[in-house]
Specification:
The protein is mainly beta. The chain folds into four domains: 15-181, Immunoglobulin-like, CATH 2.60.40.10; 189-274, Immunoglobulin-like (Sandwich), CATH 2.60.40.10; 280-428, Chondroitinase Ac, Chain A, domain 3, CATH 2.60.220; 434-519, Sandwich (Immunoglobulin-like). It has three helices and 41 strands. Strands 22, 23, 26, 27, 29, 30 and 33 form a seven-stranded antiparallel beta sheet that branches. A five-stranded antiparallel beta sheet has the order 1-3-11-8-7, with no helix packed on it. Strands 2-13-12-5-6 form a five-stranded mixed beta sheet, with no helix packed on it. β17 and β18 (232-241) form a beta hairpin. The radius of gyration is 50 Å and the shape is elongated. The model is unreliable at 1-11 and 119-136 (pLDDT under 50).
């Protein structure tokens, strides 16, 4: 009897599938599943199943060879961290022998007779017309649950898992890409955009201080923002922000004492000013306010003032300011908070600026006029007329460099430079008067040719700015001079240097101050130092003179002999 055997291939063919891992942050575990499916009528002579993981530049390639072909958990310790693989075969997964056959991605493969994994070799299904040896089971599979504990220091990017199934020398490959994300940065805060508004207020008015706090990290966090006024902690506020979030934090400050206040918010600095309130009874004239839309560092702004002794103000700024208003008040006396300066005063004036502080001003040039009638009545020297400014920080008057710029039949005109706006007085300052003190010499003993430093302090105890010539004399002879210009109440250190070659004691005089320094004698030759002393200085000197004379005679005799021999 002839038996006709008809063979038909499996419908789907065997396959390997890798599940898609979700995007995972580096340093955390990434998991995926590899499934090897074998269809009915396929028998695969599997020799090995291997896993390889590769990544972007900077990441090493990880190899996990010989995955288990039976139920087992296997750990791989790799350069890229621990990888744990759990093999879970299907219930009907088994190992047998028969004619190896399979279809991979539409391509049939046969291996002849031998051992393998699968449902059966050739045949029509379990239990009917079986051919060869084997289990004759339904379609089967084996799954690998892969857990990779990723290294936090590796680069983020796209990684590729590659599974390789080798069957009797033929390797079938399947891949899957997945993403590893960079580790989130801890919360990191940046403070920016300090805003102080308004910058000038009256006592008791509110100043709003605001700053932007940004979390430039990835994770949420809490930050404490600190406000300092004049270096003292005024208030703190806690803010909690998610990664990438920001918020504007505001403080409200009220000060009652006039003056300029320094603001600091975590390294950002600024100022605001509390103005003096002028009681109505002290205001004689108030000039119309002058509005200035913008002042830039490149273009100083000049404004003409009417009705007061101040005629013009030119303001140069450090940075751009906007919406500035300048008001000039002529006063009959200084406000109660300000002590009058110890001078003959012509006028008191108050210059008020809104939305501009002394910190904004590089220099304010103030032109003013003084009536000739007042000069004649008081008998003052025109050259001593000065503009002085009340400093609200030090609560003291400072005399400003003042220059006469013109005159007519009615007025004499002047110009002065001020570091800011405030209360001013036009008057006659006590003339500059210089006092020298604290004469110092270093070193007081030197070798010939060594430099000597001579210093003294010059102080202008007057109120007007002046120039003084400091004179250095040594042994009554003028050695050097130096000019110094100082404002009222200012001091400066004057330094001279001198070098002397002749051993002696030198008398130093700096404008009535006296001191001295000494130039030492050079050391004697060793052979002279070793000579015994008689105890009598005059006799010792006589003996040294005799020795020196003898030496010179010996030297002369030697020269004479040499010349005589040369003639012979």
């Amino acid at each position: 009897m002839v038996c006709l055997l008809v063979f038909s291939g499996p419908v789907g063919g065997f396959s390997a599938q890798i599940s898609a891992p979700p995007p995972t942050v580096l340093g955390q575990a990434v998991s995926f599943t590899i499934t090897v499916n074998i269809q009915e009528q396929e028998l695969l002579p599997i020799q090995s199943v291997d896993l390889e993981i590769s990544g972007p530049p900077g990441a090493a390639t990880i190899a996990c060879p010989d995955l288990p072909l039976a139920a087992q958990t296997k750990n791989y310790t790799t350069i890229g961290g621990l990888i744990r693989i759990q093999a879970i075969p299907a219930a009907n997964w088994g190992y047998g022998y028969g004619y190896g056959y399979g279809v991979w991605q539409g391509q049939p493969y046969s291996w002849g007779y031998g051992y393998g994994y699968g449902g059966y070799g050739y045949g029509y299904g379990p239990g009917a017309y079986e051919y060869g040896y084997g289990y004759g089971m339904a379609p089967t599979s084996i799954a690998y649950n892969v857990t990779w504990y990723t290294p936090s220091a590796w680069p983020a990017g796209t990684y590729v898992a590659k599974v390789m199934i080798t069957a009797n020398g033929v390797t079938f490959v399947q891949t899957r890409s997945f993403s590893l994300l960079p580790r989130p940065e801890e919360a990191r805060f940046v403070v920016s955009d300090l805003v102080i508004a308004p910058k000038t207020v009256l006592p008791g008015e509110v100043v709003t201080i605001a700053a932007k706090v940004s979390n430039v990290g990835d994770l949420s966090g809490t930050y404490t923002l600190t406000l300092k006024i004049d270096g003292v902690v005024e208030a703190t506020k806690d803010v909690t922000l998610v990664g990438g979030g920001f918020i504007t934090v505001t403080f409200a400050v009220i000060k009652d004492v006039p003056g300029t206040y320094a603001v600091e918010v975590d390294g950002l600095t600024g100022t605001f000013e509390v103005l003096l309130i002028m009681p109505p009874e002290v205001v004689e004239i108030e000039a119309p306010p002058v509005e200035i839309p913008t002042i830039t560092p490149e273009v100083p702004e000049s404004i003409v003032i009417e009705e007061t002794s101040i005629t013009e103000i030119t303001i140069a700024v450090v940075e751009e300011v906007a919406d500035v208003t300048v008001t000039v008040q002529q006063l009959v006396e200084p406000p109660p908070e300000v002590v009058a300066p110890p001078v003959i005063t012509y006028r008191y004036l108050n210059i008020v600026g809104t939305n501009i502080t002394d910190e904004d001003i590089e220099v304010a040039t103030i032109d003013f006029k003084v009536a000739r009638s007042w000069i004649e009545e008081t008998g003052v020297d025109v050259d001593t007329i000065t503009l002085s400014r009340y400093d609200p920080v030090t609560q003291a008057w400072e005399w400003l460099p003042t220059t006469k710029i013109g005159e007519d039949e009615t007025y004499v005109y002047f110009s002065a430079e001020s570091p800011g706006l405030s209360v001013f007085a036009i008057g006659v300052a006590r003339p500059a008067e210089f006092v020298m003190s604290d004469l110092r010499i270093a070193p007081v003993e030197v070798d010939p040719g060594e430099t000597v430093f001579i210093t003294a302090q010059a102080a202008n105890v007057g109120e007007a700015t002046g120039t003084y010539t400091v004179t250095l004399k040594i042994n009554g002879v003028v050695e050097a001079t130096e000019e110094v210009t100082l404002g009222g109440g200012k001091t400066a250190i004057i330094t001279f240097t001198t070098i002397k070659e002749i051993p002696a004691t030198y008398l130093v005089e700096v404008d009535g101050l006296e001191a001295s320094f000494k130039v030492l004698k050079p050391p004697l030759p060793p052979w002279i130092e070793k000579l015994p002393s008689t105890g009598e200085p005059i006799l010792d000197a006589f003996i040294l003179a005799l020795l020196a004379a003898a030496g010179l005679l010996s030297l002369g005799a030697g020269v004479w002999l040499i010349r005589r021999r040369a003639r012979l």
